[in-house]
Amino acid sequence: MSVVPILMMGLVVAFCMAWRAAASQQGGSLALRSAHQYFYGSGNQVLLGEGYRNLTGASKMHCSKECLSDDRCFSFNYWNGNVSRCELNGASATRFPLAVRGWTGSYYCGPEKPLDVMRLQLLVKGDKGLPGLTDRTYDTQASASADCQTADQHLCELWEVDRAYAGRYAEILPADTDIWYAVPDSQALVNGSEVTQHGLPMTTSSPGICCLGSQLSPQDPFITSEYYSLQDVAGQARGCSALASHPCTLPELKAAYLRGYRQPTSSAWPYFAVRNRDVHLFSDGCGDYADGPGCYEGVVALTPRPRGSSPVFCCPNLYQ
Question: Which keywords does the record carry (predicted)?
Answer without folding.
Answer: Signal
